[in-house]
Amino acid sequence: MKRLLLLGVGSALMFTMGGVGPAQADNGPHVSTAVAAGGSALLSNAGGGRCASCHRAHTATAEYLLMDSQPAMCFTCHAAGTGASTNVVDGQNKYNSLALRGGGFTNAMINGAGASKSIGTVIPPGGHGLPTTNQLVPALAAPSAVTSKHQIDGTTTGTMWGNGAISPNVNLGKPTVTLECGSCHDPHGNGNYRILKPVPVDAGTLVQTIISPATTNATTGVVTPAELSAPPEGVNIPDAVSKVYTTDNYWTVADRQVPTVKGSTTLPAAGVTDGYIANVSQWCATCHTRYLAGSGSYKTDSGDAVFTYRHRSNRNNSAGVSRPNCIQCHVSHGSNVTMTGDAATVALPGGGLVSAAPSSDSRLLRVNNRGTCVMCHNV
User: Fold this and answer.
1) Largest CB tally within 10 Å, which of 167, 175, 182, 360?
2) What is the 3-state secondary structure (H, E, C) of 255-289?
3) By C-alpha distance, which of 187, 198, 156 is closest to 65?
4) Cβ neighbour number for residue 252 with a 10 Å cutoff
5) Could you give the number of structural domains in the chain?
6) Domain assignment present for 46
7) Does the residue 39 lie in any domain?
8) Comparing 318 with 155, which gets the higher pLDDT?
9) Of the candidates 297, 281, 146, 299, which has an alpha carbon nearest to the alpha carbon of residue 209?
10) Rounded Cα gap, residues 167 and 196, in angstroms
């Protein structure tokens, strides 16, 4: 079995019925047809007509008895041509040309150079800084080539950065991992957001929730590691009541169609964080475990030799608007924004520990030249 890496969230990349017209992610062919124990069902209602869309019992050319290997199997629907509306290759809805929220694997429509915001006034009393509002990262009129992506060809190996436990020993993450579509998505349906698996295949270490950040004794220098909860059985993000895959503002990442409880159809009230924002950072951290950081992590030594001080990534309050979590800064599939100047000389995690050469790719970010920082911070 191939080893798999993180795929991410946003626009869905999944198997669908071939040649049957537009399909909406985990609707239609991706709805689970599992029959409860002791129950009975007509095969016509239990997926009997779907198997041949993707599988062959005796003449399969790929593992899992698939007609083709991933991602080619998935791209029979989720690329240009007929099938699902979500063309994740080019990062757009193929039927109306609107931009997909998660970017794309070959092209994307993020206008990182056109990002803007409004500057407010000092918050009294004793306010600090100037609040920023009306953040906008518009969509391009047409896709352009990506500068970073999650690699999903099932062959190219890479490092699952930050995978593993906090450690004083150098550990950059899980090496020699390959990624396919099915590492994160369940093609048969599971009732989760974008049919995301609770734990991506080969994640290795389940997410641990930070209860309190690490502290350093000012006198002795002794580091008390961050207190973490026991890892759960994975992260189940509730499915959206109504699914929206496109956007005209890449800074607006909340999904107000996602209830706070899985299986519910009650949408979150005004001011209440939706079920997507409330869970997505924890889901990302099922692979990138040491990236999940709580309040004060920017000034508190985590005790890790590589990921020592970290930007907060778990905030999900205030309806998920401009809050520092994974999905606020990064897209899931691929980004076309560019990095120049100082932004093009940022080293990979560990820097010279792996290679002295910096990586100038866009790290799945939403704004050119690390401008994602300035979207929140007025510096």
Assistant:
1) 182
2) CCCCCCCCCCCCCCCCCCCCCCHHHHHHHHCCCCH
3) 187
4) 17
5) 1
6) no
7) no
8) 155
9) 281
10) 29
